[in-house]
Amino acid sequence: MSQTVDRALSILPLLAEGPANLEQVATRLGVHKSTALRLLRTLHEHGMVYRQQDQRYRLGARLFALAQEAVENLDVREIAHPHLVALNERCGHTVHLAVYEENEVLYIDKVESRYPVRMYSRIGKPVAITVAAVAKLLLADLPEPERRTVAERLSYPAYTPRSTPNADAFLKELAAVREQGWATDFGGHEESINCVGAPIRGTDGRVVAACSVSAPNVVVTAEELLSLLPLVRRTAEEISREYSGGAPVSHAPHGAGTAPGATTPHDPSHGTPEKRAEETSS
Fold first, then answer.
1. Stretch (H or E) spanning 87
2. Which residues of 66-92 are buried (b: 16+ CB within 10 A; e: fewer)?
3. Where are the domains of the chain?
4. Residues of the chain with pLDDT > 90: what percent?
5. Fewer CB near the terminus (10 Å): N or C of the chain?
6. With the CA atoms of 255, 257, 263 and 268 taken in that order, what torsion angle do they form, in degrees rounded to the nearest 10?
7. 3-71: which CATH topology?
8. What is the DSSP letter of 183?
9. Tens of pLDDT along 220-271?
């Protein structure tokens, strides 16, 4: 990188700390004020900095517009796909990616398992929102008033005896998922299908998507699937870092990191059923 470009770019993080005058910029860069002024003028011409009436400089509106445009154009599916493929190659099970849009949780990517038994979930298809692990992760991140509103307007189909029965039970489970930072579905939609999932976060720490690994219990037991949780969480963290441009992302408080060996398919506080041999997914 040329010295001029390096110096110009060094001004931006300085102004991110707050407005600064010409002398402060020159001092921080270790250059003469005339050099600093030339750099500031160039950045000003491109809308990257703005000179206030008090002659101090701050970040310009164009910079914020570019940042917003970049965020809006991020494709979490494109970023996540190679990581989902790598996860599938390591564990062999079906891997899903889902997002929350317009009051539905939708699958936006899927990598099939290596064994003959296939799940009938499809990209673009809504998940069983009251039981799916990915749905719990996405809804758990909503602000509490919105979370409650969503839970109270949902219906609660009894897909299996392990399905979430009502709004109070769902809210209790969402609170646990929010606290621990991961979710499960042990036979809540299809008794023979189990799933573990983890959240994908943006720079602000909010959940933008969720990924999961699902498998029928004829292939692996729920406990065996649960042992993959650290791998699933690492994958979600890698996607989060790349999605956020390498910036550190916030993580859920604590409990999520514990190896969930104590969690069993009969433990509702650690995950409602989400996987069915067909649509339940991550």
1. helix 76-91
2. eeeeeeeeeebeebbbebbeebbeebe
3. 3-71, 74-270
4. 68
5. N
6. 50
7. Arc Repressor Mutant, subunit A (1.10.10)
8. E
9. 999 999 999 999 999 999 999 999 877 555 554 444 444 443 333 333 333 3
pTM for this entry: 0.68
Nearest to 33 by CA among 171, 6, 207, 41: 41
**Contact between 189 and 276 (Cβ < 8 Å):** yes
d(CA 48, CA 60): 5
Q: Which CATH superfamily is domain 74-270 in?
A: GAF domain (3.30.450.40)
Q: Rounded distance, CA 270 to CA 240, Å?
A: 23
The structure tokens listed for 252 are: 């859920």
Tokens 């599916």 locate to: 77
* Amino acid at site 122: R
Q: Tell me, what amino acid is at 37? A: L
74-270 shares the fold of 3-71: no
pLDDT in tens, 105-137: 999 999 999 887 777 788 888 899 999 999 999
